[in-house]
């Protein structure tokens, strides 16, 4: 607002006071006059809003204090500066006027330099306050718009992530179905082992040796990838895969190739996805390739040992053997939970990571529950 264009309303019941102020302020501002409080409030109610009001306190009928109170109680007017004109010199009167919202006092008789200075200062202050308020409102609008945009983007990301997760699940399910079609013993085994892997990972997530990799995201990925540990069996001939008796040494060498077949199949899927080494199938590839490796290096297909074996594969190794021991097969009866745990404990530090064995021992009741919940129809209760 340009001070020269400022509009001032003077409210006073004394014509001579009005003339003095109109003559003084009219040289610098657009001045309007009202002869009493009711006249001033009527003008304001009709939308004639000035930039500043000079308001006499002592007037017949409605005095200046009441006019000020009503003006400051109106949401559309409360930010308009109101300067009270008074011959009263009581501190209590000034305190009362200020409590009603008055912005300043001008005492009679008027000092022209004081009147001009105070009017000019309050107009500048009102303009600055208005500009600050406008900037704050603009900032609030920008923040609101940006917040809405961020929310829209977040919703899009969530939908996109949900679609990716769904596609990942569909990919894993499709690959798992290949294994289940080839080997009718794997259905319950797949479900049980993936749950064993998850509870083991959750048990070890705060362990110093494992916490660098085990978190909510990786544990969930291992859980969803675990069913692919035997996907390489799709490349094993039926005569060997479905053989009822013990495999010959030559047949066993062919069977031992299934981790490599699984690794190659999953690596090809990663290549098709265009994210080699970093895709959601990373854990599936590790598990499929390394779940038959042993802690002491006597496993296959690479003869890895100790921490060179991926964590996901070490968890899968314990889960896989525990479930195999607990399950009935054509070549053996199911062992009890206690016997299975004894046999795994005997391989602590040889076949299995010692800390993984300890975690499995601490999850005895949880593992019993998983075994019961997902047992095969031909397994004992």
Describe this structure in words.
The chain is of the alpha/beta class. The protein is built from 15 helices and five strands. It has helices spanning 15-25, 37-45, 64-73, 91-99, 112-182, 186-204, 216-225, 238-241, 249-255, 258-273, 282-290, 311-326, 337-346, 354-361, 364-373, and strands at residues 7-11, 30-34, 52-56, 82-86, 104-107. Strands 2-1-3-4-5 form a five-stranded parallel sheet, sandwiched between helices. Helix 3 (64-73) links the parallel strand 3 and strand 4 (82-86). Helix 7 crosses helix 11 and helix 12 (311-326) packs across helix 13 (337-346). The longest helix has 71 residues, at 112-182. It is rod-shaped and about 125 Å long. The mean pLDDT is 85.
């Amino acid at each position: 607002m340009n001070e020269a264009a400022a509009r001032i309303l003077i409210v006073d019941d004394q014509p001579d006071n009005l003339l003095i102020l109109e003559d003084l302020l009219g040289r610098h501002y657009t001045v309007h006059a009202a002869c009493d409080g009711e006249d001033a409030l009527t003008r304001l109610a009709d939308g004639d809003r000035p930039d500043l009001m000079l308001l006499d306190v002592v007037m017949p009928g409605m005095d200046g204090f009441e006019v000020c109170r009503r003006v400051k109680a109106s949401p559309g007017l409360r930010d308009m500066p109101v300067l009270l004109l008074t011959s009263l010199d009581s501190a209590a009167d000034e305190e009362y006027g200020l409590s009603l919202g008055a912005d300043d006092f001008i005492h009679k008789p008027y000092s022209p330099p004081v009147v001009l200075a105070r009017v000019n200062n309050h107009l500048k202050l009102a303009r600055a306050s208005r500009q600050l308020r406008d900037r704050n409102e603009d900032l609030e609008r920008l923040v609101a718009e940006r917040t809405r945009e961020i929310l829209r983007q977040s919703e899009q990301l969530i939908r996109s992530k949900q679609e990716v997760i769904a596609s990942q699940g569909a990919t894993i399910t499709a690959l798992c179905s290949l294994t289940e079609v080839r080997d009718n013993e794997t259905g319950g085994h797949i479900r049980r082992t993936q749950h064993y892997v998850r509870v083991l990972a959750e048990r070890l997530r705060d362990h110093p040796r494992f916490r660098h990799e085990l978190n909510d995201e990786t544990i969930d990925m291992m859980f969803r990838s675990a069913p692919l540990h035997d996907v390489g069996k799709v490349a094993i001939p039926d005569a060997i895969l479905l053989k009822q008796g013990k495999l010959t040494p030559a047949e066993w060498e062919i069977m031992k190739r299934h981790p490599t077949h699984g690794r190659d199949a999953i690596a090809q899927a990663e290549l098709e996805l265009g994210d080699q080494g970093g895709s959601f199938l990373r854990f599936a590839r590790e598990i499929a390739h390394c779940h038959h490796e042993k802690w002491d290096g006597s496993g296959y297909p690479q003869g890895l040992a100790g921490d060179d074996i991926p964590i996901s594969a070490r968890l899968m190794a314990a889960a896989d053997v525990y479930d195999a021991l607990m399950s009935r097969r054509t070549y053996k009866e199911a062992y009890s939970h206690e016997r299975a745990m004894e046999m795994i404990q005997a391989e602590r530090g040889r076949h299995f990571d010692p800390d993984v064995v300890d975690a499995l021992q601490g999850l005895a009741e949880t593992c019993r529950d998983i075994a019961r919940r997902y047992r095969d129809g031909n397994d004992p209760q």
